[in-house]
Amino acid sequence: MYHKAINKLITSINNIYKKSKREEITLGIARKYGLSLAFKQFQKDLNRLSQKESSKLSKEMQKHYVDKYVDTTGKRRPLKKAKEKASYPWSGMNSTQRIAKNSQQLNYQVIQKVEDVLRKGGNKPQVVSLLLDIANKYTDRHSVLVRTELWHMDLLGELDGMKQNKVQYVKYISEGDHRVCPECISLEAYNEGIYAIEEAPILPRHPRCRCHLIPYEK
Questions:
Q1: Could you give the CA distance from residue 118 to residue 125 in angstroms, rounded to a whole number?
Q2: What's the per-residue H, E or C state across 25-66?
Q3: Secondary structure letter of residue 18 according to DSSP
Q4: Which helix (H) or strand (E) holds 73?
Q5: Whole-structure pTM value
Q6: Using one digit for the tens of pLDDT, what is the confidence trace for 161-193?
Q7: Backbone CA torsion sign across 63, 66, 69, 72
């Protein structure tokens, strides 16, 4: 997601080195030839990307919810409900807020680390390599964020579908392998993993969580 904005920043930094006519430059020289303006433009690019990605993810989340709900119930598509569920901050923040936070953290890291390199007199390959590493790191974070939000909407659509079908109890199921975290193990072990559907644990419990709920009859 972030490589487009990072690449534009790299182009600006290349121009700064070109104007300075030096292989290595200090932070003061970089600022003299436009580093602050380059950072401001980078932040604008990030904000545009964040808004675009937020809108795209919201639509995907609504589709995941609707598809699972319809698969579970066979009833009409609850579009209004899907929109409400997609915007609800189920884990303390909603997807739009999480994308914005990720972008803010990326912006902070870029400014801090580039300035740290330049304070010591950094060359262009160092700065470019640093920026690409940061872009890869935060793009991976964004991918995990997207997968987690979509998985939540899949599970939520299925759970709400079960409620519509008058299911009263669900059973918590983990993958049962060595990768299952202690929290998920305890939720599966508590009361043999059986919960009243209105008290069912919110899923996923964490990024890359693979647990799910199935209908259960006492």
A1: 12
A2: ECHHHHHHCCHHHHHHHHHHHHHHHHHHHHHHHHHHHHHHHH
A3: H
A4: helix 35-73
A5: 0.91
A6: 999 999 999 999 999 899 999 999 999 999 999
A7: negative
